[in-house]
Amino acid sequence: MASEIHISGPHIGLFNQSSQFIIKDTTINVVSGDQFNNSSIMVENAKGTEWITAPDPLENFRIAYLKIVENTGAWLLEDESFQKWKNNGELLWLQGKAGSGKTLCTNIINNLWKEVNAVAVFYYFDTRDQAKVNYDGFVSSLLCQVAGKANNEHAQAKLQTLYNNSHEGEFLVAEDKGAILIDLIMTIDKAIYIVIDGVDECKEQTKVVDLVGNLSKLNNCFVLLASRPHLNMARIAAGQKITISLGDKDVVNADIKRYVDIKIEQSEFSEELKTEIKTALVNGGNGQADVNAQGGYYGNALHIASILGHLEIVRALLENGADVNVQGGRYGNALHATSIGGHLEIVKVLLGNRADVNAQGRYYGNALQAASIGGHLEVVKVLLEYRADVNVQGGYYGNALQAATCEGHVFYKLQAAKAI
């Protein structure tokens, strides 16, 4: 008899271009519309874990998948170190610039879903969603996903114990959920792959690394995590992990160039400007793509896309390792450049990617002064929320308050901020 299926909004959204579904047991088969490489997406039986509040990583997967450019990232699936991890276990650590692992992880997840004798679960840490930056949300999501795979009496008993001991889910402790997660994985008679992206975006990185270390010791659990190189992995023995440094791979540079080239061609830039951006992306020394290469009036590709308000190009560059704070060109930095034009959504994206809100630019001094002189009130509000200093000196007008006063813009907002 088919098991009971609980499908929430985000699961439907994953196939929002599809016209027909066949639901059988726990597999959704897409008959027409969007298909993820013709693989099935498992929608697990949610009965028994609805009392656990957990972030849904499926939306992150959907967004990342739709941005994958054909033939990029395929090299990793054939990489010797990746194959060693996939076949023999241990822990695989992908280290690279911010955003560089997201599409690779998504490709890997899609590939692992095709494995007949294995199951795959995943998680994306995401600073744009406060529910997805803490350890509790991470372990809760993995527990709910694994519970859907561990359909046996022992697993159900463990979940029931957790439910009872937490007063029917009212007082759940992350450490208890982590312990039950390990117990549940041990009841599964298949290999289980766990793919985790953006660990350096978590507020409690040590807890994540400790749990990952324990999970990777299980015979049937293969863990892959992606982060920037500064993540402290010293707590995991060198012999327990395999490391792939994305910064050392020429194929990554080729992927970046292809990805950004396609995004630029899809934009409404003039042909002259497209040529300038592509030129800025090329490192003249070896011809490889370099999203941070300096050159031309605007400085680099991120600065160009920011000043002209092209949100998708900005996102594409950041996802492929563009340095959000690099200095150069007419406007000094990307946040300064986009604040001049009042491009609110780009301002939010840059700040969400750790742009320095008080970094000094060129003519207008800093982003707050640039937004103030242009009268971009909503941008000013966002910059102040990120603790822009209204008193910092620099630029043609001296400070943001003087810039706003000269043009009669957003004066009262700045005056109130200065008075605090």
From TrEMBL:
ANK repeats lie at residues 297-329, 330-362, 363-395. Pfam families: Ank (PF00023), Ank_2 (PF12796), NPHP3_N (PF24883). InterPro entries: Ankyrin_rpt, Ankyrin_rpt-contain_sf, NPHP3-like_N, P-loop_NTPase. Residues 71-228 form the Nephrocystin 3-like N-terminal domain. PANTHER family: AMELOGENIN, GPI INOSITOL-DEACYLASE. The keyword Secreted does not apply. Keywords: ANK repeat, Repeat. It comes from Tetrapyrgos nigripes. It comes from the Eukaryota. This is Nephrocystin 3-like N-terminal domain-containing protein.
